[in-house]
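User: Predict the structure for this protein chain, please.
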Amino acid sequence: MRLAVIGGGAAAVSLLDSMLRHAGNDAAFDITVHEGARQLATGRAYRPDLDCALVNREAGFMSVRSAERDHFLRWLHRQPRYAATPLGTLPPDAYVPRRVYGEYLVDHWEACLQGARRRGWTVTVVPEFATVAKASAGEVMIRGAASLTHADRVVLCPGSGPPADPYGLAGAPGFHPDPYPLTAVLPRIAEDAHVMVLGTGLSGVDVALGLLHRGHRGRITMTSRHGLLPGVRARHRPFTLTHLTPEAIARHLERSGSLGLRDTFALLGAELAAAGTDLADETAPRPAHDRLRSELARLDGNPYQTIATTALRDVRESVWTAWGDHEKRVFLRRFHPLAKPLYNPMPPPTARRLLAAMDSGQLTVRAGTAGVRARAGGGFEVVHEGRAGRADVVVDATRTGLATTGPRSAPLLRSLADAGLVVGNPHGGLLIDPATNALRPDRGQVPGRLYALGDLTSGDLFYAGSMYMINVRAELIAHELVAAAT
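Assistant: Here is the predicted structure, written as structure tokens:
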């Protein structure tokens, strides 16, 4: 089978690993990977960078294999270069720099290439971004600037893109449109500058933490519409849902024929009440430093986070597929900002460093950002909740949507849509068959030839960009590809 893989980041590593484990001796693949970035396997998230930028999941849960959660940790303990360091004996509940996880991905990518060669498969890397797609009755053709690939099947896994400059600041002196790599961006910022970080999610945390790590002396202001920092990851506690379960959702659908937001929150509320907590209390507005301090005090047991992350794993698909378009739109607009801190929490060491900077007065987190503009005499003016403030430097660390992929993927996605090979999802990304991750083509096109992996599928799967979800879905796609090749 001729297979084209669009994107050579972490998702491609997980896919190739899954294919090698699923395939028997009678499956043969000729694989072409289109990746225009200089470094394969790491994507944006895991390329070399400052050691203070940590993976936000414990090392014992990071892997390219959904059924072997300690795969990364076992690799780490075998590395001679880390044998005499704390990483050589790192416990499963500790955190590692993202660049270390990137080393694992690069190493395992090479191991997968060797495994493919031993099977007689070919893997060719085209070092450019794919831009055009066309289809005939028997194949899909993928073009780049200087390449042409003929494929029987295509898997799209382009990863997430850079920030989208929501305030149109491109070209303004002192504006940094992408925070990564931190090692390249942060040294260009004066040590006493007042830095405005657009975005209070994990990327914004990286910027603030990187500045503090480098000894920045000036003020740091993190700002967003909601002003919500990621939660703090509490210790993992196995938990079994008793109210918000797939069975309860199925019974409700059988009785009522639909599932509304109010119905879902009632089930969630019953789950929280049984654990001794309350949704209204947990989501009540609080200053960022108070919320951070409260979460650090609950590292041994945070029932709200435990229930939310368990529900994300166990009932996400049941709920998301039961909701209609109206419920999905309302949730994404009103409640998604409250949910993101729960399922994308930061490591406790990161939270402690941020809290110390808040307590000292150097770091401030603001909500209600309404606009940012460059000032004629230099610097920037930002409007928070009707009041104007100033900053010397702005770093864009925003995320523009649930399933955004960035400008480098846009030409190919437009070409695929124009050819009828893919259809946009109104909730983000592209329409897929959730059972297989196969992309749903427009009428008249042959189904089952294109697949998607990662953020592109979030409109149908809601939460599809985490490594664990990528691993799970890579297994599904690998099964489909191997079945078609044998």
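The mean pLDDT is 95.
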